[in-house]
Amino acid sequence: MTSWPTSMPDSVPPRSVERITTTGAWGVGDDIGGRRFARVVGAEGLDLEAGGHLGPVEIAYETWGELDSTAGNAVLVLHALTGDSHARGPTGPGHPSPGWWPDIIGPGAPIDTERFFVVCPNVLGGCQGTTGPASIAPDGKRYGSRFPIITIRDQVHVEALLADHLGISRWAGVVGGSMGGMRVLEWCVGSPERVERAVVVAVGAAATAEQIGLCSLQVRVIRADPAFAGGDYYDNDVGPAQGLALARGMGQVSYRTASELDVRFGREAQGVEQPLKGGRYRVESYLEHHGDTLLLRFDANSYIVLSEAMNHHDVGRGRGGITAALSGVEARVSVVGISSDRLYPIGLQYEMARLLPNAPEVRVVQSTVGHDGFLVETAAIGAWIADALA
User: How many C-beta atoms lie closer than 10 Å to residue 296's C-beta?
Assistant: First the structure.
């Protein structure tokens, strides 16, 4: 069996008290929680798709279950934009929020940890232990605005290095939704021999113009915050909290549906507040809450870097187009969509499935929630995942 370090190598200075007011990023000196760490790229660095260079690269990840003697029972779970490695587990030291997929992973769950060894890494460019903009660069200063452009392919490259580190040559399954689904697809296209089964949830084969537009507006809102300071805010008294909270609120509207928001909030005022006298409507309070909560566990630069990586998503780039790229997939792929998803409409999943070998059936989860259905409708999603991994 492979052994893993349980704490971050002592390669960067402790987290400063001042940085707590500028970013919600995890930092050395914070409780590690359930994280494990691996340095997958050394000082030689990693050449990136867009032409940049990055190194060393640390990756934070969490695991559940046991890897069998043949390393043949490993399942990779990939998180979305504001997720992290904490897919399962309670709030606690090192983890300001509970696991984002607790009903999907565990003993007897759809991804059964009595059968599978489950790995969930924090993505490259993230802010919860894996190298990202808030990390320390080789010169001893935080990357900030110097962090290079990365793509979904770069993120999967780093995940493949983690698999090598763990002794896993082929995944029994790779599962993810939204940005995680982009990486599932990239695994299937870029490393077809390393994926046996895959579950792609609520995403398309390439970013659409609307998706790019929505992400770019959120990025512009963050950059327009005076406290953003061009991306180099870590040593300042305050960070771009307002910009990040507003970006999160904009995103949250696209993750849900008009009908769900009407049913939940309608035109009701928030508590005793009076909108005609400057008070808020309930839906405004809801969006502010999501923004404020994100500030406790996320970094504005990471939000930008990951949003732009999603905008670059295109499995056909440099591969002769989407049709040619998907035709080379060897994994048994299950495609799952959310009926009411307006950010990644169900038509994108049908288009993808039509181009995959054997044209798999699209499994449609009926939901009024919208794109967030991949996180909310866990009974339905879990049933399809269990079937795919059976």
Answer: 10
Active site residue 313: no
> What is the SS3 assignment for 337?
strand
Other CB atoms within a 10 A radius of the CB of residue 80 amount to 27
The number of residues in the chain equals 390
Positions of E strands within the chain: 36-41, 46-47, 53-54, 57-64, 74-78, 105-106, 111-112, 117-121, 173-177, 197-201, 332-338, 362-365
CB 8 within 8 A of CB 26: no
- The reply to whether 367 belongs to the active site is no
Other C-beta atoms within 10 Å of 368: how many? 15
3 φψ region: left (φ > 0), alpha (ψ -120 to 50), beta (else)? beta
Set 84, 154, 314, 341: catalytic member? 341
Question: What are 119's strand-pairing partners?
Answer: 63, 76
Query: Angle 179-190/152-166 helices, nearest 10 degrees?
Result: 70
Q: Mean pLDDT check: name the lowest of 13-27, 81-95, 113-127, 263-277.
A: 13-27
Bond from prior residue into 133 cis (ω within 30 degrees of 0) = no
Mean pLDDT rounded to a whole number for the chain = 94
Say if CB 362 and CB 350 are below 8 A apart: yes
Question: For domain 212-308, is the CATH number 3.40.1190.10?
Answer: no
Q: Where are the domains of the chain?
A: 17-207+314-389, 212-308
What does the alpha-carbon distance between residue 295 and residue 285 come to, in Å, rounded to a whole number?
16
pLDDT in tens, 282-311: 999 999 999 999 999 999 999 999 999 999
- Active site annotation includes 371: yes
Annotated catalytic residue: which of 79, 85, 135, 178?
A: 178
What is the C-alpha separation between 377 and 390, in angstroms, rounded? 20
Reply yes or no on domain 17-207+314-389 having CATH 3.30.1450.10.
Answer: no
Span 143-199, pLDDT tens digits: 999 999 999 999 999 999 999 999 999 999 999 999 999 999 999 999 999 999 999
**How far apart (Å, rounded) are the C-alpha atoms in residues 162 and 164?**
5
